[in-house]
Amino acid sequence: MYRLGLIGNPIKHSKSPELHEQFLKELGVKGVYKLYELTHDELGAFTERAKQDGILGFNVTVPYKEAIIPHLDRLDFFAKEMNAVNTVKLMNGELVGYNTDGIGYMEALRQFKPDFFDHTNKEILIIGAGGAAKGIALALNEIENTTINIANRTEDRAFELARKLKNGHVYSLAEAERHLEAYDLIIQTTTAGMQPNIDGQVIRLDRVKPTAIVSDIIYQPKWTKFLKQASEHGVHVLFGIDMLIYQAAKSFEIWTGHRPTEKLLESLKE
Ligand code: ATR
């Protein structure tokens, strides 16, 4: 019996249980994936109980991707580099933190536009500088010929992230909005636009280049205000659900050693 779960707040609308139940079904093993909506003060008690109860592992989402770290025994290289964790596995009584956000985003993008990184320098804009933004930025940082521009409400956080990148730059949200035609790939990683704040939108897309890919990592709702506006400009729209599916597949692989099939992953995008 595999015991899995998700911690965060709020998480009532999470799709992760549905995805992992499908992965478990395909693998043909019994298991549960539970939601744990915790307050900050409950993180310590939760991790202690997880160890005692012998959970297989759990995911971590907003707002605990950084806050969970002091409660873990070890981090893998990527999670350490990002200082953010979205996947935890219990191994020999120790809680080990991983981060599959960046890999998940990269795999979603590769499936969506396999040749995106083949030619010339790509200008990327990441909106936000939280845990998810970090994971994505560091994964994209491995690709040659990319310039990664970060725009965040709190500019100090944007500078902290840009310093970790080979070719990272910081702009204010207003500057990024004004220079939008420069970007080939725009990635919205803030929580503005997520249920219940569906009217939130950090950057307007009036100046977007029609050949650009515009993506939002929010998947509830699928069509955020940001993506609706993007589609009015005829750009390529990459949905948040795609990243969720591929990061979930990578987490599942870490926990169980089994990768869900591409056929199943494709079918879950609907
Ligand atoms: P996660 O770790 O899941 O990315 P997080 O660390 O809380 O979550 O990051 C949330 C991101 O959304 C941050 O970039 C945050 O901006 P700040 O660094 O300025 O807090 C951004 N964010 C959330 N609500 C926002 C809003 N209403 N307007 C602009 N940015 C917002």
Automatic annotation (TrEMBL):
Recorded superkingdom: Bacteria
One GO BP annotation of this record: shikimate metabolic process
Cited InterPro entries: Aminoacid_DH-like_N_sf (IPR046346), NAD(P)-bd_dom_sf (IPR036291), SDH_C (IPR041121), Shikimate_DH (IPR011342), Shikimate_DH-bd_N (IPR013708), Shikimate_DH_fam (IPR022893), Shikm_DH/Glu-tRNA_Rdtase (IPR006151)
The organism's taxonomic lineage, starting at the top: Bacteria, Bacillati, Bacillota, Bacilli, Bacillales
Subunit (UniProt): Homodimer.
EC number of the protein: 1.1.1.25
Binding site for NADP(+): 128-132, 152-157, 217, 240
Protein name as annotated: Shikimate dehydrogenase (NADP(+))
Species of the source: Allobacillus salarius
UniProt cross-references to HAMAP family, sorted A to Z: Shikimate_DH_AroE
Signal peptide: none
